[in-house]
Specification:
By secondary structure, the chain is an alpha+beta fold. It has 2 helices and 8 strands, in the order αβββαβββββ. A hairpin with a 3-residue loop joins strand 1 and strand 2.
Length: 113
Amino acid sequence: MSSPTEGSMKHPVQFGENVFKSLRERASQANPDSKGSGSELFILPDAPLAGIRLTMSVEEYFQRLGAVDDARKPNRIDLIPTENKEFPVMVNAPVTITDGKTFIDGREVVLVF
């Protein structure tokens, strides 16, 4: 079985530098939309995308996601590892936060640890 980060350079979904620039600007101007001890979530307001900034390895992030109960585990297809050092994981889906809970396409999920 391959690791979640294996082949990330060949992932069919790629993000342009303008997306990462928007995330950097958002991160410099505002607090994260959601924050844990090892990750921060920044939602792009004008696009159905979000960036996750990590203080842990991408591999450890996906290992932690693997331990989340299935009811709150995000669909793996929505999480895209990137080569960007500041935002090494992207959420390629609409993310919202309501009453401190994180949702992708209306389903409650865990994205930060």
